[in-house]
Amino acid sequence: MRLLIVASNFPPIVGGIQTYAYEVARHLAPRCSELLVVAPRSPQFREHDARAPFEIVRLTSLGDDLALSGIPSLTALLRARRFDVAFTTHWAPGFAVERAARIARVPMPLFVAAHGKELIHAPLGRVALAQRVYDSIRAHVLRTADGFLPVSHRTAELLRAAGVAAAKITVAHNGVDPRRYFPRESNTLQEQLGGQGPILLSVARLVSRKGIDTVLRALPAVLERMPGVRYAIVGSGPDKTRLQALTEQLGLAKHVRFLAPVADTLADYYNGCDLFVLPTREEPGDIEGFGLVFLEAGACEKPVIGARAGGVVDAIVHGETGLLVPPDEAAALSTAICELLGDRTRAKAMGRAARARVLREGTWDHTANTIFGALQTRAG
């Protein structure tokens, strides 16, 4: 199979969709006779691409949300090279590929990944006409693409609600690299937090829907029963100032630390905690499509707590690899935290079950197998 992958989000920029795009390409490459990734230019991309085990072409014009300006470059590429199928990691570059293939008069099946937020996002909502154009382009891709690969069953529901036929949908869960995320001794969090007692951890972009404020509101009740608990929040984002103010307001400054995200130390953070917690919620125009961090923590044999929202119900097996609680309910969350911190035997068993599930069905290799099988149905 000669496969073209077009990604508007790609490393070395750090993020969940960027990780998805790279890992899917890396694991699909050995299955293909030819694989080319087209991605936007970004700082230090040359150093990154020199180490990649597949071919990457960078465009200066592909980073915009709709990738409209990438159409001429993609048209030239499709006239110069032939591919059996195209796969885009977002609907927006899917539109660019569909237009380019039409202009170049190169029939080619198009498959599109779906993560969640991009299916309901309204970034131009303040300008009605612009938003209508945006919506019409998105609807065009949802109507014309040959197949969709949502990362969770909740995302699949969003596709069906948008009018995509069920026969076009194949759920391909996110994966994790168990060679990078695995259980080992780590004092990283202990050294940064100081003190003694159990450590809670959240790793996320600091935006409202991640529900970190719910953890903060749950923490006073947890501290009443377990005074030594400490909470590490790893991430950056626009909600940081509000969360820091809430921490002070609740009198939690001695128990909570905000830490900068450093990709190379994430596995150490996971291994240094006792319990991973991230009670995300759905908000208008925003949703947690899956929750890759739950797999990363689980691969390190850590029990996890999430909320019954978005695709998180696919990432956590309630009662087996962790617990699911209602979103925005601090009392339920504090009860769940105390339940697992107070029963180390059960917590450790959940952690072991989480890693076993990753090895059984949650690696990027499993993700690539599912995607490749779907692409084969229409390739060549």
How would you describe the overall organization of this protein?
- The chain is of the alpha/beta class and 380 residues long.
- The chain has 2 domains: 2-175 and 363-376, Rossmann fold (3-Layer(aba) Sandwich), CATH 3.40.50.2000; 188-361, Rossmann fold (3-Layer(aba) Sandwich).
- Helix content is 43%, strand content 15%.
- It has 15 helices and 12 strands.
- It has a 6-stranded parallel beta sheet with strand order 3-2-1-4-5-6, sandwiched between helices. A 6-stranded parallel beta sheet has the order 9-8-7-10-11-12, sandwiched between helices.
- Strand 8 (230-234), helix 9 (240-249) and strand 9 form a beta-alpha-beta unit.
- Helix 8 (212-225) crosses helix 13 (330-341).
- The termini are close together.
- 48% of the residues are buried.
- The model has no long low-confidence stretch (mean pLDDT 94).
Helix/strand order, N-terminal first = EHEHEHEHEHEHHEHEHEHEHEHEHHH
CATH architecture designation of the largest domain: 3-Layer(aba) Sandwich
CATH level 3 topology of the largest domain: Rossmann fold
Kindly provide the name of the CATH class of the largest domain: Alpha Beta
* Count of β-strands: 12
Estimate the global geometry from the Cα principal axes.
globular
Structural Rg: 21 Å
The H-level CATH homologous superfamily of the largest domain, spelled out, is Glycogen Phosphorylase B
| Range of strand content | 5-15%
Strand order in space, largest sheet? 3-2-1-4-5-6
